[in-house]
């Protein structure tokens, strides 16, 4: 009988009942007030006069009027570079002990995003809130005694001039609480292995020694790890070696495109819980089973603002125009796409994280990620966000009975005419022309702007099918396997030329 599991589950259920209902709007006002007070005497706080903002009648409005929008390039050039020059108290008190390396999905060089002790505490706090939210899911007591396999980047961080650098998943895993280490797999020794293929090989070798109840990581890399374990032990599915696997916490990208290929590796259904952990912080997690939307973490060191995702507010490079309006949580509407802005305990201020979200439940502050500002395909007025592209690909999976876990595309000019050129990652054999016709028809039905574009400047759709391994090799060549690495869904023409040359090679 799982006595410890009963105790843990009971504690979580009692704790969840005692915590009461959340008031996200009130929590956000408190968070902004705390951020401004804490950073008042930093160089940034003095420059933008946080003291005056705090003393104003409405600090929320004064903050929005006083502080401009920052994307990574701007805040790094104007402020964060000073940290690398040895300055302290720049955008947050002191100097950060960590920098999260993030090439995102478009950059050629790694961004270096400060991660303070306050942010690590905030990530832990949100992680605990997610654990407590498990009381809302119908999980048996023995689940709370099983191992949790977290597949992220290496925890062997680089030591650079008084701080450490690595991906956020590696930084987080190297700071796990002592009480959690008994559950944590693959364990500290394997987690420190820098080479991803070597690390996954070790996981496959050790797999029979672990009783895994939950997985955590980006879908594409989790799939490759599971396939490695299955192949190494000559299994039919992963439940033959981990029969008690019940939960997968996904993150980094939308799970939808991976659902079919992921389920093919299982012997029975499991609970999928979405999370939103970025290099800049732990933004949101799925808190209840009635929805696959995620609840914003409104009380853990991050202040959110929302800019309506309209073409007139977005520059060609995906950054915001200065006159774009930013809304508070109290002003948003359900179903509208917004560009997400954050101000954090790591010293990011009105920072454009690059994601677009939509609210499914404003009262609960529940959202879905709908895409990336740089992946908004609008070259010829088609106005396709990533969620619309995902829907189109999932439609192909259903229509043709195939699996397409990866894809990318570009609005490419061919002999003076624009085409949407798609590469679909699939092991299944299907006629590419049939796929192109079905994809085109599906997007016409789902998006009126796309239908108009197809009648004018957008000449047609082309599809090329390639094995999913090509996408993984591309990521390995250009960035690094595993961790937070994600595939570009939409490429510019210059990057797409590199991609097509890579595919041919």
UniProtKB/TrEMBL annotation:
Family matches, as Pfam families: GH3, GH3_C, GH3_M
Record-linked InterPro entries: GH3, GH3_C, GH3_M
Any one Gene Ontology cellular component term annotated for this protein: cytoplasm
Highest rank taxon of the organism: Bacteria
GO MF entry, a single one: acid-amino acid ligase activity
UniProt domain GH3 C-terminal: residue ranges: 389-494
GH3 middle domain mapped to chain residues: 298-362
Protein name per its UniProtKB record: GH3 auxin-responsive promoter
């Amino acid at each position: 009988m799982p006595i410890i599991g009963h105790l843990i589950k009971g504690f979580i259920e009692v704790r969840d009942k005692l915590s009461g209902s959340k008031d996200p709007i009130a929590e956000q006002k408190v968070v902004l007030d705390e951020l401004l007070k804490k950073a008042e005497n930093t160089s940034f706080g003095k420059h933008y006069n946080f003291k005056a903002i705090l003393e104003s009648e409405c600090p929320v409005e004064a903050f929005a009027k006083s502080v401009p929008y920052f994307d990574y390039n701007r805040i790094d050039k104007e402020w964060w570079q000073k940290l690398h020059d040895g300055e302290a108290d720049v955008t947050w008190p002191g100097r950060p002990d960590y920098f999260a390396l993030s090439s995102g999905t478009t950059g050629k060089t790694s961004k270096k995003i400060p991660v303070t002790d306050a942010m690590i505490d905030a990530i832990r706090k949100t992680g605990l809130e997610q654990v407590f939210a498990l009381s809302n899911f119908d999980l048996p007591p023995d689940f709370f005694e099983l191992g949790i396999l977290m597949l992220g980047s290496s925890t062997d961080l680089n030591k650079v001039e008084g701080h450490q650098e690595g991906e956020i998943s590696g930084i987080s895993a190297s700071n796990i609480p002592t009480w959690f280490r008994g559950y944590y797999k693959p364990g500290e020794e394997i987690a420190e292995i820098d080479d991803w293929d070597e690390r996954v090989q070790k996981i496959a070798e050790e797999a029979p020694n672990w009783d895994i109840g939950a997985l955590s990581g980006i879908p594409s890399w989790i799939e490759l790890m599971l396939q490695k374990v299955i192949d190494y032990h000559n299994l039919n599915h992963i439940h033959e070696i981990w029969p008690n696997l019940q939960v997968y916490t996904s993150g980094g990208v939308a799970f939808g495109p991976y659902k079919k290929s992921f389920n093919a590796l299982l012997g029975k259904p499991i609970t999928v819980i979405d999370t939103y952990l970025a290099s800049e912080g732990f933004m949101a997690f799925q808190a209840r089973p009635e929805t696959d939307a995620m609840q914003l973490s409104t009380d853990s060191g991050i202040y959110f603002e929302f800019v309506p995702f309209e073409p007139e507010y977005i520059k060609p490079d995906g950054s915001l125009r200065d006159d774009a309006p930013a809304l508070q949580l109290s002003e948003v509407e359900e179903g509208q796409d917004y560009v997400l802005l954050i101000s954090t305990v790591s010293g990011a201020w009105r920072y454009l994280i690059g994601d677009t979200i939509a609210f499914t439940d404003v009262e609960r502050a529940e959202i879905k990620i709908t895409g990336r500002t740089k992946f908004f395909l609008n070259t010829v007025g088609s106005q396709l966000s990533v969620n619309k592209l995902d829907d189109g690909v999932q439609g192909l999976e259903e229509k043709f009975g195939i699996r397409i876990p990866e894809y990318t595309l570009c609005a490419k000019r061919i002999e003076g005419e624009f085409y949407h050129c798609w590469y679909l990652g699939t092991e299944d054999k299907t006629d590419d022309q049939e796929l192109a016709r079905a994809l085109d028809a599906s997007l016409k039905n789902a998006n009126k702007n796309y239908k108009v574009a197809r009648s004018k400047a957008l000449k047609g759709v082309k599809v090329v099918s390639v094995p999913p391994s090509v996408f993984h090799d591309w990521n390995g060549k250009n960035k690094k396997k595993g961790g937070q690495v994600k595939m570009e869904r939409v490429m510019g023409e210059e990057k797409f030329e590199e991609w097509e040359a890579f595919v041919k090679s």
